[in-house]
Specification:
The complex is a heterodimer of chains A (279) and B (310).
Chain A lengths: L1 H22 L4 H26 L9 H10 L1 H35 L2 H15 L7 H8 L3 H24 L4 H9 L4 H37 L7 H10 L3 H29 L4 H4 L1
Chain B lengths: L3 H33 L9 H4 L4 H7 L18 H11 L1 H5 L9 H32 L1 H16 L6 H11 L5 H24 L4 H9 L4 H36 L8 H10 L3 H32 L5
Helix pairs in contact in B: 1-3, 4-13, 6-7, 6-9, 6-11, 6-12, 8-9, 9-11, 11-12, 11-13, 12-13
Classes of the chains: A mainly alpha (279), B mainly alpha (310).
């Protein structure tokens, strides 16, 4: 009972603190502090509720238990991270992104192809492509190659569609200006159209970061060497080592957020001129 | 409509490339099969053949290449085979008078559709409520918005098996609820972002006008902010329903699922029947296309009635 009251008090306390902070003059510190306090409050409430209802750690472990498991099994988590994120997701992401960028520049040269491929690309980007995971495992074997292949297909279409749209962003006036400078196709592409397309390209890249991790993890459900985050999660659920599963989920969350954050950081450097970045 | 010709041309090219790719993809399987049937294949034995490139194999055994187009368990089925399988598991079932047979895709598609719609409804509701909270409360905006963004960078599939275990421990039978939760998770974010934009779409002058009418907060919400957000809502609903379908299929993938398009993919993998996987994939694509088209129609009709059609 006392845990239940504690949970309630924690929640109200955290929210009241945030209300007080939100009412003050907006600053960078407050913009960071408020969500952090919100997250911490949620974790503490989770901890208190697990204790209040005496939930078995086999069903839902408390955050403190997960943290202990995390600290105790960093070597397992590290090998899994390398297998899934570094080998599967990142390599697939790199291959898929480069392929999509090249394909977009090629498609862009023909108005006919652009009109034909854009609707198809848009449609395919909305499809549940993760379903091809078993086919890729069948084609490329159990190791990271099959995971990277799934990721390549998953990230290809969002980046392609966004890049093709972005390449048409430069206005007719700007292109005319390049022509008066006697700039050739490649000069116009590199100096004007690609930079103008960057906000769109990064939009596609940001969508693709999450897709890359999803693809790499799901593909491991269909067969993998005895390491990898998806492998550990599916076997961990079976063997009831739920705290390790939650530790893997924490790694996946951290990896996903960091990956997204890095891409967003690069975007900020590259598209510093865009209104959305200056605000 | 002017895009029809290019789209169909591109589709025809894709199908053409697909047909061409079938030969090199399937040549090894085809040669194994031919050898077992007693025909002469160069080189003999499937182990020595592994060292030879597929192009060499196709040149040396040009008579047997055609076999690759009619395999029962191909590595890459032809579009025709996939179409046949799709017809066999949908149209033919209807002709036999058993449209909802468990061997047919209509049954499995229906299971997937149900979870998708439940998840879609739940996710949309969450997204709208969250957006209203964010628009009206600064505390909620500062606390929730960063987490809403972070939640989308977390690969939900990592959680999928966990959610299934949790809900079965809590005593929820079947997979409908966990699947709906996963699809709601994927679907709420686009709705949230779109609705925040939409609810903030009215200009200050319009809000001021309502204030001069002495309108209450609720009235200005119902008469101004909500109608103004409808175009944004529909745009994000279209993204959301596609995301919800992805979520449902991901929820059906972890081991143990029996029904649903995702489960068909899983079972097809376990029993080594690639045609079942491919037909389930295409059924999912058809379902996604149908759902998005339906919402697009609803958007056009609604906006026209509201006088907001572009």
């Amino acid at each position: 009972m006392s845990w239940l009251i504690l949970a309630l008090v924690l929640w109200l306390g955290g929210w009241a603190l945030n209300m007080w902070l939100a009412g003050r003059k907006e600053s960078r510190a407050i913009r960071i502090a408020v969500p952090v306090i919100f997250g911490l409050t949620l974790l503490l409430v989770w901890e208190a509720l697990v204790n209040a209802f005496g939930i078995s750690p086999v069903i839902l472990p408390a955050p403190s238990t997960v943290a202990q498991t995390f600290a105790a099994s960093t070597d397992i988590l590290w090998t899994d991270f390398q297998q899934t994120v570094v080998k599967g997701a990142l390599r697939g992401f790199a291959i898929g992104a480069i392929a999509a960028l090249i394909a977009a520049v090629l498609i862009d040269r023909s108005a006919f192809l652009t009109r034909g491929l854009l609707p198809i690309g848009n449609f395919v980007a909305a499809l549940p492509i993760v379903g091809i995971a078993p086919i890729m495992v069948n084609w490329f074997g159990f190791d990271w190659q099959s995971k990277a292949a799934v990721v390549v297909v998953m990230v290809f279409f969002p980046i392609l569609v966004n890049t093709v749209q972005g390449l048409n962003e430069a206005s007719a006036m700007q292109r005319d200006l390049m022509r008066t400078y006697a700039a050739g196709y490649w000069q116009t592409l590199l100096r004007l159209r690609l930079p103008a397309a960057m906000p769109f390209i990064f939009n596609g890249l940001k969508i693709a970061t999450t897709l890359a991790l999803i693809g790499a993890i799901v593909a491991e459900y269909f067969g993998s060497p005895t390491r990898g985050m998806g492998f550990r999660i599916s076997t961990g659920v079976g063997s009831l080592s739920i705290d390790l599963v939650w530790a893997e989920i924490a790694v996946a969350a951290l990896a996903g957020t960091a990956f997204y954050g890095i891409v967003a950081w690069i975007e900020k450097r590259v598209t510093f001129w865009h209104p959305s970045q200056r605000g | 409509m002017k895009n029809l010709v290019p789209v169909f041309t591109v589709l025809a090219v894709i199908v053409g490339i697909w047909y061409l790719a079938v030969a090199p993809m399937n040549v090894r399987v085809a040669l194994d099969q031919a050898e077992r049937a007693g025909e002469v294949v160069v080189p003999e034995g499937s182990v020595p053949r592994r060292a030879v490139s597929v192009w060499r194999l196709m040149l040396d055994n040009s008579d047997h290449v055609a076999l690759g187009y009619a395999l029962e368990r191909p590595r890459l089925p032809t579009p025709g085979q996939v179409g046949q399988e799709l017809w066999k598991t949908t149209g033919e079932m209807v002709q036999k008078g058993r449209p909802f047979s468990k061997r047919g895709l209509i049954y499995h598609g229906w299971i997937t559709l149900q979870s998708t719609l439940w998840g879609f409804a739940l996710g949309t509701l969450l997204g709208i409520v969250g957006a209203v909270a964010i628009v009206y409360s600064r505390t909620a905006q500062l606390s929730l918005m960063p987490w809403a963004i972070i939640s989308q960078t977390i690969p939900i599939v990592a959680l999928a098996p966990m959610i299934i275990v949790l809900s079965s421990q809590v005593g929820i039978e079947g997979r409908g609820v966990p699947k709906a939760i996963i699809s709601a998770y994927l679907c709420f974010f686009p709705v949230l972002v779109g609705m925040v934009k939409g609810l903030r779409a009215p200009q200050p002058a319009q809000l001021d006008l309502l204030r001069t009418y002495n309108a209450t907060g609720l009235q200005s919400f119902l008469r101004l902010r909500l109608p103004a957000s409808v175009p944004y809502l529909f745009t994000s609903l279209k993204v959301g329903i596609a995301a919800a379908l992805v979520g449902t299929i991901v929820g059906e993938l972890p081991t143990g699922a029996i029904s649903g398009l995702g489960a068909r993919i899983l079972i097809g993998d376990q029993f080594g029947t690639p045609l079942a996987i491919w037909s389930a994939l295409f059924a999912a694509a058809v379902l996604a296309g149908a759902l998005v088209t339906l919402l697009d129609l609803a958007q056009r009709v609604t906006l026209k009635r509201m006088g907001m059609a572009p």
